[in-house]
Each structure stands twice: as structure tokens, then as C-alpha cells.
Amino acid sequence: MTLVGKNILITGGTSTLGSAFVRKAIQAGGTVYFTFHQNKAGAKELENLGAKAFELDLAQVPAIEAFAKDFRARVKSLDVLIHNAALTRDVTIQNMEEADWDEVVRVNLKAPYFLTKKLLPLLFKVQPSKIFFIVSRAALQGIFGASNYAASKAGLVALAQSLAQELGKKQILVNCVNPGFMKSAMTQSLPEAVFEKNIRESTLGRISNPEEAADFLVYLSSPQMTQASGQVFHYEARKTH
Question: Alpha-carbon distance 206 to 154, whole Å?
Fold first, then answer.
């Protein structure tokens, strides 16, 4: 697999999956740009490898607009756009404040819509170009105590499938990727019982490996994948119920 000559932008580049992808995309020869929020040390490490970092608060529409304007001035075309950044505010619905709902939906769903819209001119310049939304099994099955997160990810699935139809004639492929349940900054505070449950529900008896999931995302970003669009790729082995 090669990404030589490809311009790639991934949000949430310092996350567990994001940083693994940035490293592997650079190894594959891609020119990689990423956004991050607050993790300056992690961003610096990736910049030292050759990636270009942009600090961005995806909860703020004016900040996204300013970033997109700056990015369009620096980069003349975009081969791959990956919406990876996400936020959780886990609480059951009876205890959920309106702010918990709004913030999660704003970062997980509104920001991908707005950023995609602002960067479409760059994606139009490449055929085919690709957009990926990183989603979750929660988008299709729901999840206890995180209805805001599940709803935002389900919204991304519907958004991707709609955009695949809208943008297909422009040769823009739009897909979702569910990397599976993995150990990350987002899941590290969950009780051990949650990890054990996910292991039991896996046909392989293990949770996802972010390094392997990143390899899969590199493949999808490569010229070897040119026809799949409107799909949800599940990088996990789940038992059917």
C-alpha cells in the first residue's frame, strides 16, 4: 500500500487511533495534516515525524471556519478527509444536562458536517477523493449511558450514506469505519467489567488493536480502494445475537 502523493487530513490526530494512523500514513508516503485539541505534547511528537499539526476546538464553528480558510490557503487539493475526533459525556438520559447533549452533538456531528462543507473545494480537485467518518457499534446498536454519543454516531452513518449519493458523480467516496472497541483515552476510565464484556462478545475473544485498525484505514485511503462508497466498515469480530 502506498499513499505517496496523497494529501490527507485527519481530525483528532493525537487520539489513540488518530496517532496510529498518522504514523502509518507517513510511513506509507502520505503528506499528513491533523487537528488536535490541547494535547500539545502528542502533537509535537507527530510533527517531529513529518506531519503538520493544527490546534482546533471543533466545538466552535468560527474556529472551524478560520481553520478551513487557513487550510485552503496552504493546501491546494485534498485526497482524503478523515473525521476521527470525538467527544463523550456519558450519563443516563434522566441525569443528562442539555449541555451534555449539545456539546457531544456539536463536536461529533455538526463539526464533521461543517468541515466537510468548507473543504469540498479541495476534495473536488482529486478523482477519486475520499471522506471517512469514524463511527462506533453504538451507532447501530445504541449503548447504555451514552445516548448522546450513540445518536451523534448514528447521525454520521446517515450523513455518510447521504453524501455518498450526493457526491458520487463528483467521484468522492464517502464511507464510515467502525474501528471496534479498543483501549484509548476515551475508554480508559471505563470499569474493567466493560472490557470483559466486549471480550466475551468478540468471536476472537479480544478487543480491537488500534495499530491494525489504522492499517485498515491506510488501505481504505490508498489507491487500491476506488469503488466502495456509502458503506459502514466494521473492523471488529462480533458475535451475532
Answer: 24
CA–CA separation, 188 and 208 (whole Å): 14
Distance (Å, rounded) from C-alpha 114 to C-alpha 122?
A: 14
Q: How far is the first Cα of the chain from the last one, in angstroms, to the nearest whole number?
A: 35
Amino acid at 132: F
How confident is the model at residue 121, as a pLDDT? Answer: 97
108, 87 Cβ separation under 8 angstroms: yes
- Given the candidates 3.40.50.2300, 3.30.70.100, 3.30.450.20, 3.40.50.720, the CATH classification of the domain at 7-234 is 3.40.50.720
DSSP result, 145-190:
T-HHHHHHHHHHHHHHHHHHHHHGGGTEEEEEEE--S--STTTTTS
Tens-digit pLDDT profile for residues 110-130 = 999 999 999 999 999 999 999
Catalytic residue list: 149
pTM of the predicted protein model? 0.91
Q: Beta-strand (E) ranges in 22-128?
A: 31-36, 52-55, 80-83
